Structure formats: C-alpha cells, structure tokens
C-alpha cells in the first residue's frame, strides 16, 4: 500500500508539485500483490503510483488514470527514495517531457532498486516501510484528432455543412469537444460579416453549475499549412458575505463539508479569490491580496473559516454607484479552486522526521558552503590585491628603468654633441693658421 501523506507546491514557473508517499512492507513482502496508490490530481489529470516486483528488484511507475484515445499528456517527473541517514544518499530517477498515451499510460523504471538495498542502505525502517517522493512539473495535455470535411463543403452548388464536431474528451473533471464551423458561426455576434472564415470553438459539455476558466491553444493543419491560434483564455455559485465592521471589506470563507473529512486524514485545499468589477462582458477580475490561499482541514464539527482581506473600502461599498455592486446591490466574488488533495496521517508522525533531518542537513551543508565561499572570496580578494600591488611595483620599476635609459641616452647625446663641437673648433683653428702662414 502507498499512502499519500504530504503535499507541497513550489513557487516556480514550471508549476512543480511534490507528493510524498509512505510505502508499506506489503510492497516487498508480497510479490504477487499489485500495489497502486489512490488517485491524485496534477495538471488537471488523474494519476496514480504503481509498484512491481521481479527478480528481487523493485520497480515504480507513474500511471495516467484518465487515458483516452486522441489524448496525450507530457510531463516532467522525478521519483526519489528518501534515505533515513543523509539526503545525499537518496535514490532517484527522472524523465523530461515524458509522453503518456492511451496505448502507453504508465511510465517508470522496472529496475529501480534491489529489494535488499532498501534495508542495507537504510531506506526502510524496522517495520519495512519507506518513503517515496514524486515530483511533477510542466504538465501539458494535447488533444489531436482528424476531422474529415465533407466533399460538398468546398464545392459550388452543394449544400454547405453548418458545423463539424469532434468526439468528446475528458479534462479537468469536465467533458469537452471541439466544434468547427467551416463558414463561420452565424449565430455568434462577433462573427457576423465573416461567413467565409473558419470558426473553431472549445465546448464544455458537463458541469454547467460551475464556471470554468481555461487556457488553451488551437492548431489547424500541419506542416507549412499549420495555423496556430496562440494561447487563449476563456471563462467558460459560491456563498460568502462581507464584513462591513472594518475599514476595508473582508470575506469569510467557511468549509461546510469539514465534518465529512475522513478520520486520520487531512484535506489540503488551495484557491484564488477575485472581486468582480463591472458588468459582463466587460467584467474585470481583481485578485485579493495574499492569493493564492491554502489551508489544511481535519475532521471537525464546524469550521471557523478563514478571513480574506480586500483593498475595497467599506464606504465605497455603501455607495449606490459602486462598480463592484450589481443591480441587485450584490457583491460578486469569483473563487477558483487550484488544488485539492486528501492526505493520510492528520497529525505529526515519525515519517516527518526524515524530511526534518534532511532539512537540517541541507541547512548545514549550505551554511558550510557559504562559509567556504566567503573564505574563497577573501582569498581571491587578497590575491587580487597582491597581484595589483605586484603589477604596480613592476610598472614603477619599468618606469624607473625607462627613465634611466632615457637619461643615459640623453647623456650620450650630450657627450656626442660636445665631441662634435670641439672637433669642429679644432678644424677651424687649423684652417686659420694655414691661411696666416700662406
């Protein structure tokens, strides 16, 4: 059995999620038993972790539970076995942009680690249990299908087909399909006067009691005739009330289903909240400060709730012309559910000790590296200073030598000039004497 007991989301661009599992001894002691974790959600897809036993070697796989035809998912994932002694002895393997399809919904390593190493290398405790981390990032879902255009669509004198629709597929808990209007959607207001242009729509087929915000891109054709839309964002009734007894409006969110959280479990929830200003279709969503919000819920009779602050002044909300109020004087709030995971072990447990030990070890390693780096920087500065001093002395010595050479050359020039003038004077005296004698 593999129990999901901890979850963390990293604040990076890749949307990294780290799932921590406690794997019981039944995985290694019962080779015939198929051990698979409960489903978890990441990247709006359902996943599970599966284990295999063969030739005394343990294998681990990431399994895509929502596999369907014409749908494929790309993901970066990493499995890490946590060593109970030191984080540098962890055992892991990873894959970049791994493709999951209907024909191949599981990806992993069947020769992950020998079973004996779990005990000799101190991965498993005395009960035969060990911890496994799964890191997932850059989850991308692609739906690809071929739509056959009727022969009469592009021929003159033939009846024109109004629309073409693909098979439905599942994403994010909803059913979807792609609808193509070869001659444009005449019923849409924005497409009037554009009957000769192809219109493509992403249609949601289920879950109409909730709104859904979705980001997607559409590509038609392939090769040189490929047309890409780029990223598109569309908005495809929660309760709450405002507290007007403060300077700004505060929202109080209550989890009414808290009494249904299973015993010895935690429900982790992550969400974003917005205030809506203006009327549709020109509605502007203003995010609340501090978003996204997150909280752990254990089984309780009543939830005390969480207070979400806003920047909206209470005096402004009392104004009849407030842009945040509807015609019925109601304040509109949008809640977007980002994450929801059910975690085993509601209280602090010995399994948390390994991560805490790793945390302390990493802090010490980082502190040691920082001290070493500081020492190296000081040595480098000292070397640079000594080198600069040596270069300055060398330049000064060279300048002195150049000055001495220049002085020596000047002296030689002066001596040569003196000799030359004395020789000329001697010649002049000799010439004048001869003349007088003549």
UniProtKB/TrEMBL annotation:
- Region (Disordered): which ranges? 397-438
InterPro entries named among the record's database cross-references: MATH/TRAF_dom (IPR002083), Mediator/Homeobox_domain (IPR052145), TRAF-like (IPR008974)
Q: Where are stretches of biased composition, namely Low complexity?
A: 397-419
Q: Which SUPFAM superfamilies match?
A: TRAF domain-like (SSF49599)
CDD domains tied to this protein? MATH
Matching entries from Gene3D superfamilies are given as: Apoptosis, Tumor Necrosis Factor Receptor Associated Protein 2, Chain A
Name this polypeptide is given: MATH domain-containing protein
Q: Which organism is it from?
A: Vespula vulgaris (Yellow jacket)
């Amino acid at each position: 059995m593999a129990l999901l007991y901890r979850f963390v989301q990293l604040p990076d661009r890749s949307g990294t999620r780290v799932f921590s599992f406690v794997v019981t001894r039944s995985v290694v002691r019962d080779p015939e038993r198929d051990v698979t974790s409960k489903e978890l959600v990441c990247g709006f897809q359902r996943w599970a972790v599966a284990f295999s036993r063969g030739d005394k070697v343990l294998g681990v796989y990431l399994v895509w539970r929502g596999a369907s035809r014409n749908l494929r998912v790309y993901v970066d994932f990493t499995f890490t076995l946590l060593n109970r002694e030191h984080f540098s002895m962890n055992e892991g393997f990873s894959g970049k942009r791994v493709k999951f399809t209907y024909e191949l919904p599981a990806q992993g390593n069947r020769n992950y680690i020998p079973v004996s190493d779990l005990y000799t290398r101190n991965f498993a405790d005395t009960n035969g249990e060990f911890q496994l981390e799964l890191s997932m990032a850059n989850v991308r879902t692609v739906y690809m299908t071929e739509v056959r255009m009727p022969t009469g669509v592009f021929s003159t004198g033939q009846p024109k087909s109004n629309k073409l629709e693909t098979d439905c597929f599942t994403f994010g808990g909803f059913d979807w399909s792609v609808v193509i209007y070869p001659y444009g959607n005449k019923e849409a207001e924005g497409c009037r006067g554009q009957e000769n242009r192809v219109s493509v729509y992403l249609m949601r087929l289920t879950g109409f009691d909730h709104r859904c915000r979705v980001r997607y891109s559409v590509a038609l054709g392939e090769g040189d005739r490929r047309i890409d839309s780029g990223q598109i964002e569309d908005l495809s009734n929660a309760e709450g009330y405002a507290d007007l007894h403060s300077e700004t409006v505060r929202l109080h969110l209550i989890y009414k289903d808290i009494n249904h959280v299973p015993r010895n479990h935690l429900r982790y929830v992550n969400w974003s909240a917005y205030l809506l200003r203006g009327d549709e279709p020109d509605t502007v969503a203003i995010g609340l400060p501090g978003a996204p919000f997150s909280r752990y819920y254990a089984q309780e009779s009543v939830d005390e709730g969480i207070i979400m602050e806003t920047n909206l002044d209470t005096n402004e909300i009392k104004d009849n012309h407030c842009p945040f109020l509807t015609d019925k004087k109601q304040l509109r709030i949008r809640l977007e559910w980002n994450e929801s995971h059910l975690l085993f072990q509601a209280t602090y447990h010995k399994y948390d000790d390994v991560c805490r030990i790793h945390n302390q070890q990493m802090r010490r390693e980082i502190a040691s590296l920082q001290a070493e780096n500081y020492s190296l920087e000081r040595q480098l500065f000292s070397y640079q200073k000594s080198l600069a001093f040596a270069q300055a002395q060398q330049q000064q010595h060279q300048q002195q030598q150049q000055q001495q050479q220049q002085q020596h050359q000047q002296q030689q020039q002066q001596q040569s000039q003196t000799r030359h003038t004395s020789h000329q004077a001697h010649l002049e005296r000799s010439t004048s004497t001869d003349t007088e004698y003549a």
